[in-house]
Amino acid sequence: MPTFKGDEATNYDSRIQRLIPGYELLHDLTLAQLHTLFPESARILVVGAGTGFEVVRLAMHNPKWQLVAQDVSEDMLEIAKSRCLEAGIQDRVSFLAEPLAHGKKEYDAVVCLLVLHFLPDDGEKSHLLRAIQSHLQVGKPIFLADLMKPHTPFEREAQLFACENLGLTSIGVERMRHNLTHEFFPLDRMRLADLLDECGFDSAKPYFQALGFVAVTSFALP
Ligand SMILES: C[S@@+](CC[C@H](N)C(=O)[O-])C[C@H]1O[C@@H](n2cnc3c(N)ncnc32)[C@H](O)[C@@H]1O
């Protein structure tokens, strides 16, 4: 997994939009569903909040939403904090710079975008998903986006070409080519379905796909 510390944190915002085709659309579509489900108040946990892109967008959208931004990288969350201050939303966002522990069922929704794919499927993915499930009220949604196993033999190559078109340098493309094979632990649909089931969620409902990146929503079971 990248470290998401130091320069990797500082440069994150300029890199990510060139690495994930449709990055903003993914966040827009997540927001659209939260808006529809929770037109009034809601408590939303953002797991792997990074530099705060979704936190700022969500908090700015609905002043009645309360957010918790969690991440294991203090450097990423420091950037998120200053973005929240700049946006004047600091009183509605709290920060948790530590691994997510099991907790009370106090959240109406969890957003976990582009995080789980960095965890190996040796118990780490299920550990995080179970912790998330423990925080979600029964029947409430998780929004999950991850790199999946390639659906065709040419998908990864097409993805790199799309990144190049988004302005990624040739060095960046080669780094991404290496990372796609060595830094991610993508699942296929069957394994994702099993994992969600094991961790107390219902079936995955897809709402976004950009080549290998897929987002789904799923609801917490009792
Ligand atoms: C690619 S960034 C995504 C950030 C943000 N969600 C976004 O969409 O821009 C992945 C983030 O997940 C965090 N992360 C990695 N493993 C994690 C874990 N086990 N629990 C919480 N956050 C984690 C990293 O520190 C990093 O900030």
Structure description:
- With about 220 residues, the chain is an alpha/beta fold.
- It has one domain (about 5-150, about 185-220): Rossmann fold.
- It has helices at about 5-10, 10-20, 25-35, 55-60, 75-85, 125-135, 155-165, 170-180, 190-200; strands spanning about 40-45, 65-70, 95, 110-115, 140-145, 205-210, 215-220.
- Helix 4 (about 55-60) runs parallel beside helix 5 and helix 7 packs antiparallel against helix 8.
- The chain starts with 6 loop residues before the first helix and ends with a strand.
- S-adenosylmethionine binds near residues 16, 47, 49, 99 and 118.
- This is Class I SAM-dependent methyltransferase.
Tally of contiguous helical segments: 9
Radius of gyration: 17 Å
| Ligands | S-adenosylmethionine
The fraction of residues in strands falls at 15-25%
Which fold does the CATH topology refer to?
Rossmann fold
Class from secondary-structure proportions:
alpha/beta
Separation of termini?
32 Å
CATH architecture: 3-Layer(aba) Sandwich
Largest sheet: 7 strands, mixed
